Amino acid sequence: MTIRTNFFLITAACLSVAGCSRSNAAESTVAIPPGQIWLSDAQMLEAKIKIEPLDEQDVDDVVVTSGKVTFDDVRVSHVFSPVSGRITRIDAKPGQRVKKGEVLAILESPDVGIASSDLHKAEADRIAAEHDLQRQRELLAAHATSQRDYEQSEDAFRKAKAEVERAMQKVRLFRGGVENVTQAFAIRSEIEGEVISRNVSPGIEVQGQYGGGTAVELFTVGELDRVWVIADVYEMDTGRVKVGSKVNIKLFAAPNRVIPATIEWVAGTLDPLTRTTKVRCVIDNPDRTLKPEMYATLLISVDEHRAVAVRRSAIVRLGEQMAVFAEKEKSSDGRHVFVKVAVAVDESEGGQWVSVLHGPDKGLTKGSRIVTEGGILLTGSDGK
C-alpha cells in the first residue's frame, strides 16, 4: 500500500471519528454536532485545503478548438526560382539576416541564357533597323528611293522595337536585368529578415515556376518575433466567437504553459467541407519558442457576464447531488467548522468559474467562505 493511499485512509478515518482528533484530550471531549466537520490548523495544512470567499466573478463559457502556429504572412517570404536550372552557389545560411534584394543563391539556367540572348539580339536588330530607316529617310529626301521602300523600312523598325520590348518583358519575369549573355541567375530575397530555412544544396537541379512543373521552395525568409495562431471554429459556435474574444492557448509542445491572447480576425466565409470558419490570434514571440506548424489548443471565452460563482474545483458531486463545503465560525476549541451545502450550478459554462443558480437559501451568501481545493476529503465525514 502506497504512502498516498495510507494518507487518504487515515484522513477519512480521522474525519469520521471525533472530527479527526490528533490524540488531543481537550478536542476528544467536545461533541461535534451532526452535519459538521471540524479540522485543526494542522489538519487543514496536511489536507491542503484552500478556502476562498463567494463573490461575483466574470463568468464565461468556453469554446475549445484546435489550431496551429503560422507565420505572420506579411512578414515572411517563400522564395522560389522562376526558372529551372542547377544551383552553383549558395550565399545565405540558416539563421543569417539578409536585406531586401540580397543574393541568396546563384543557379545556371538555359532559360536565362536564352532570354538574355534574345534580348541582345533584339537590341542589335533594332539598331540595324534604325540605321536602315535613317538611310531611307535621307534617300527619300533626295528623291533617291521610293515611298514604298521608306515605309517598309519604317515598319521593320517598329517590329524591331516591339521585339526588344517583348524580350525585355521576358527578362523582367526573372526579376532582374541582364547585361551580358549569361546563364547565371541570382535568387534574391524579397524582404529583409532572417533565413529561417534553406532547402537547397550546391549542384541540385531545381524546377522553375515558369517551367510548367512543380516548383520547390528554396528559402524561407521572415521574422519569428511575432506569429499567428490560426484555428477552426465550427459553424454552431461562429455566432458566439467575435473579434476581441479572450483566448487561452495551450501548445502540445508546452502543455503546462498558457498563452493569453485575443481573437484578432474572424473569416467572413465558411468552409463548405468542414463547416468551419477561420479565426486568428496575433502573439508576440520574443523568445521564439512558438514555431510555425506547432499544434495548439484554443480555449475561447464567450458569453461573458457577471454572476455569483464558485470555482469549478469547489464543486463536489455526491451521486445525483452537487454540493460545496462552506466554512462557519470556528468551534469553541479553535477548530475550523465546515458544513455541506447543496447547490445547483450551470454546468454548461466551460470556464474555471460556474454560476451558482441556487444555494443562498441554504446558507450561502456573498462573502461565504467556500472550500475550493480539498473538498473531496471532507465527503467521508459529513455528519451522518
List keywords for this structure.
disordered N terminus, 4 domains, 6-stranded antiparallel barrel, 384 residues, conserved putative lor/sdh protein from methanococcus maripaludis s2 fold, alpha+beta, 6-stranded antiparallel beta sheet, Elongation Factor Tu (Ef-tu), domain 3, OB fold (Dihydrolipoamide Acetyltransferase, E2P)
According to CATH, the fold-level topology of the largest domain is conserved putative lor/sdh protein from methanococcus maripaludis s2 fold
N-to-C SSE series? HHEHEEEEEEHHEEEEEEEEEEEEEEE
* Number of extended strands: 22
At the first level of CATH, the class of the largest domain is Mainly Beta
The helical percent reads: 10-25%
CATH architecture type of the largest domain = Beta Barrel
Mean pLDDT: 81
**End-to-end distance:** 28 Å
Structural class, judged by helices and strands?
Answer: alpha+beta
Major sheet details: 6 strands, antiparallel
Q: Nearest-angstrom radius of gyration? A: 39 Å
State the helix count: 5
Outline the low-pLDDT stretches: 1-27
Shape: rod-shaped
Q: What would you say this structure looks like, in words?
A:
The radius of gyration is 39 Å and the shape is rod-shaped. It has 5 helices and 22 strands. The N terminus is likely disordered. Helix 4 runs antiparallel to helix 5. The protein is of the alpha+beta class. A hairpin with a 7-residue loop joins strand 18 and strand 19. It has 4 domains: 130 residues, Beta Barrel (conserved putative lor/sdh protein from methanococcus maripaludis s2 fold); 95 residues, Elongation Factor Tu (Ef-tu), domain 3 (Beta Barrel); 62 residues, OB fold (Dihydrolipoamide Acetyltransferase, E2P), CATH 2.40.50.100; 73 residues, Helix Hairpins (Orthogonal Bundle), CATH 1.10.287. 26% of the residues are buried. Strands 1, 2, 17, 18, 19 and 22 form a 6-stranded antiparallel beta sheet that branches. Strands 3-12-15-14-13-16 form a 6-stranded antiparallel beta barrel.
